[in-house]
Amino acid sequence: MQRITTLIIGAGQAGLAMSRNLSDQNIDHVLIERGQVANAWRTERWDSLRLLTPNWQSRLPGYTYDGPDPDGFRTMPETVAFFDSYASQIGAPVQTGTCVTRVTACDEGYNVSTDRGDWVCRTLVIASGVMNTPAIPACAGDLPATIRSLSSKEYRNPAQIEDGGVLVVGPSASGVQIAQELKLAGRDVVLSVGEHVRLPRTYRGKDILWLMDQAGLFDVSIEEVDDVSRVRHLPSMQLVGSPNRVTISLNSLQALGIEIVGRASGFRDQTALFSGALANVCHLADLKMNRLLRSFDEWIEQQDTRDAFDPSYELRPTEVPETPNLSIDLADRGIKTVIWATGFKPDYSWLDLPVLDRKGQLRHDGGVVDAPGVYAMGLPFMRKRKSSFIDGAADDAQALAHHLRAYLDGGHRAAA
User: Fold this and answer.
1) Tell me: the pLDDT tens digits for 314-373?
2) Measuring CA to CA, how many Å separate 189 from each of 168, 185, 246?
3) Which residues contact 165 (CB under 8 A, 6 or more apart)?
4) How far apart are CA 202 and CA 213, in angstroms?
């Protein structure tokens, strides 16, 4: 049995940022990582993926991108190297290749059982991420046995997919990128579309995420929004990181020959069934995008440097087929594979503490979990809109490290 003041579960950006802040507070700690540093970036992404965020937006405590292409988008190997370098620079005490099997409360704090021995810690930081388990709808169980089903977490490249058409379910960042890649590889692709966040890659000559950053949108806190639960469950932005900074959208995919249909609602024998609300969800995505772009126009007008921006313009509305298919016979269409790009959910099966709500989500207030001395890092909109981004880990880690320090010093009611 080993003892430590603080144990961090996970060594991605969230865990490493917390490690740096705990070191600054002189709090002894260890990071337990099931694989290697940045394991999910290293092993659970498709081959051609690049970060959606520009290189300059990779800002961690005391560390940032300093290469020749700040406005570029790193590949996954480059991203892994970035995290490896950061872990080395801060001297993060990471125990790799170690799976946490159970966490329970004990008199001294918490007992953390792993496949390489047990730990006792006074405080615990859960930085294991939320992209642990693909959130595949129940209707996937009705797929015929002749149709291959896999998640975006399992997808690597078109060569992995057997000959034939592909139904991609999910119109957010992963779904649209995978659909485009498969179509460019010569596949017949159908994209099933539900709620999504449409954005251009650039607007008025600037990257859309630069505009959001400069306008302060990433720093919006949970206290500033009306429905925290709603914003925490928004789909990811419909963006792609590419050297030529292209915009990906349902319009660009349809121009390639990809058919769009409504949200997948079920399967009956060889027939896939889709919602009839395609036009509505596309209209709503256009409406929200245009509202955001108009807010940028207003912000630009307030700047002394507004001449540095291109003129305002409107994007073409999403084109929706007059009569989108409500069903497709998979056999007739030659579709042999369904790829589920329907998001992820966390896996807390190892967490034997009364801190989960009825949906299996952590109960927390800005990362302060509903158990003494337990904290979370890296959750969507945990404290600010940027909390789940690489760029969001620094602020959250600093705030929670101070709270953790106060807890250890006896100030159990320290403000989050």
Assistant:
1) 999 999 999 999 999 999 999 999 999 999 999 999 999 999 999 999 999 999 999 999
2) 7, 10, 20
3) 187, 188, 189, 190, 333, 334, 335, 336, 337
4) 13
Cα separation, 340 vs 140, in Å, equals 9
Tell me the three state secondary structure of residue 40: helix
Local structure of 267: helix, strand or coil: strand
Closest CA relative to residue 192, chosen from 326, 302, 20? 326
Give me 19's structure tokens. 């490690």
Alpha carbon distance 217, 204 (integer Å): 17
Residue type, 288: K
Contact 130, 379 (CB under 8 A): yes
d(CA 368, CA 124): 11
| Residue in this structure with the two tokens 């390489």, named with its chain if needed | 116
Q: What is the signed CA dihedral for 316, 317, 323, 326, rounded to 10 degrees?
A: 120
Q: Say if residue 222 is exposed, middle or buried (CB neighbours under 10 Å; 0-12, 13-18, 19+).
A: middle
Q: DSSP string covering 171-207, please?
A: -SHHHHHHHHHHHHTT--EEEE--S-EE--SEETTEE
Assigned token pair, 82: 């970035």
What does the pLDDT look like over 3-54, one tens digit per residue? 999 999 999 999 999 999 999 999 999 999 999 999 999 999 999 999 999 9
What domains sit in the chain, N to C, each tagged with a CATH number?
2-132+346-408 (3.50.50.60), 136-340 (3.50.50.60)
Give the other-Cβ count within 10 Å of 11's Cβ.
27
Of 38, 12, 129, the closest CA to residue 376 belongs to 129
Q: Do 30 and 100 meet the contact criterion of CB atoms below 8 Å apart?
A: no
- Measured N-to-C along each axis, helices 393-408 and 13-24 cross at an angle, to the nearest 10 degrees, of 50
